[in-house]
Amino acid sequence: MNRRAFLRSLGLGAAALAAPGCSVFAAGEGARKPRNIVFILADDLGWGDVGCYGPTPGLTPFLDDYVKGGVRFTDAHSPASTCTPTRYAIFTGQYAWRKPGTGIAPGDSALLIDTDIPTLPKLMKQSGMVTGAVGKWHLGMGPGPGKTDWNKPISPSANDIGFDYTFLMAATADRTPCVYVENGLVVGLDPDDPIEVNYKHNYPGEPDGKRDRASLKMDWDFGHNQAVVNGIGRIGYMKGGKKARWVDEEMADIFVEKACAFIEQNKDKPFFLYLGTNDIHVPRVPHPRFVGKTPFGPRGDATYQFDDSVRRVIEKLRALGLERDTLVVITSDNGPMVNDGYKDRAEELLGNHKPAGDWRGHKYTPYEGGHRLPFIVCWPGAIPGGRDNPALLSLVDLGATFAALRGVPLPQTALPDSFDQSATFLDPAAPSARANIICQDYQLNLREGKWKYIVPRPAGNAPGPKNNPLNGQLYDLEADPAERNNLVKQEPARAKAMYATLLKAIADGRTRP
């Protein structure tokens, strides 16, 4: 990506141009309440993994064409560079660093979202929508480690925070338990083969990723060497539930089928659907029909599979005549990671592909590559097609934005960090509702205009007044989009002011006015 393209992607250069052959609407023309909302959240999909953002063609052919009828946001960010805190922020409208225990959750975690607070799905229900959640959850289920009984109805669950229908995996595909949970019940469970899960020790007679390494169909590189399910080592242990265990190669299809069934069943009602794909998170085991579709091995093939999953959902909307009534948002939970624990040749086969584009960093880091996202919004007839939108946006804003689009009043105490970005959704020329965003990894970082400040270690996610802000990092993203030139010593007043903004956000307990 050249400098001009970087400036445009930051919203600091020339205005974006409409794609050839795409209609451009006047601001506000055709604006109306979306009857339905479909929110598709990929896992570990980087800025450069989507063809219309990066230089690598062929990985996402459907999305590259689909975006011509919608809007490509170029300054959208996850509120964290890892999965659980991002998802917590999306559904609660609250930065996850405000609540201890919202780091990357183990598979047997208790439900992390309080059931008595306003949430995104509750607000959608309040607006008259049927709500559904399909796919990756990773926000905990039940009372927690040693207490959750996977053989009985699991409560509390996603159904208790506002979803009418749920078909979920508890955590990630590389963590136990490796089963699907539908409306709080493990799917296909044989009562004579009860499930047990723990993260401390294996069970007698069960395969072990270290001991039985030679038998694995995908070898582990680090960390994924405990329970073995479907020939793949996982994090955590489990026994029982043999008939209920998933087959990784079938996962994308099953999630799409469940999502499309939800749409079909509710075609005559307003609905909100969250679809969280496993792709392109590890273990990357795409269906055989996608193997070899790209030159990048399982990671590239899983990206192609994600694109096809999106295609099938959109085609379902089209087949039912629902596309013009449906707002579709497609994004990722954080930036990309190439080698994340399995020997799937992801680094070896990467070639010239840049999963994060020319941004520095990746998942787990505070740099742009960790949290700057592909973010596509489509709503035919209501949103201008073939446009870029440079507005500053965080995924924590989705709750307030969807509520505004659906006409739901937002109580002052609800969704304390979520900003109403409905104007920017409807009009690519509208300014962001935000002056800044805060992103989280092991270090908080603050973005204001072209400036990015990263708090010093060991302050981490709790910077305090005694920490020296001049030990942090300060970057001018207009002049230095790769975040290589730390200007904290040259701009001490700015660094201190941005640090003070972070302290105020922490002390206030909210950022939304």
Architecture blueprint of SSEs:
Blueprint: H1 3-10, E1 36-42, H2 61-66, E2 71-77, H3 83-92, H4 120-126, E3 130-136, E4 165-169, E5 180-182, E6 185-186, E7 196-198, E8 228-229, E9 232-233, E10 237-239, H5 251-265, E11 271-276, H6 297-319, E12 326-332, H7 368-371, E13 372-378, E14 387-389, E15 393-394, H8 398-405, H9 422-426, E16 436-440, E17 444-448, E18 451-454, E19 473-476, H10 492-508
Parallel strand pairs: 1-11, 1-12, 2-14, 2-15, 3-4, 3-11
Antiparallel strand pairs: 2-13, 4-5, 5-6, 7-10, 8-9, 12-13, 16-17, 17-18, 18-19
| Residue runs with pLDDT of under 50 for 5 or more positions | 1-30
Residues in helices, as a percent range: 10-25%
Question: Distance between the terminal alpha carbons, to the nearest Å?
Answer: 37 Å
Secondary-structure-based class equals: alpha/beta
Give a quick account of the main beta sheet: strands, pairing sense, barrel closure. 11 strands, mixed
**Mean pLDDT metric:** 92
Properties at a glance:
513 residues, alpha/beta, eleven-stranded mixed beta sheet, four-stranded antiparallel beta sheet, 10 helices
What report would you give on this structure?
By secondary structure, the protein is an alpha/beta fold. The chain is built from ten helices and 19 strands. Helix 4 runs parallel beside helix 8 and helix 5 (about 250-265) packs parallel to helix 6 (about 295-320). It is globular and about 65 Å long. The chain starts with a helix and ends in a 5-residue tail after the last helix.
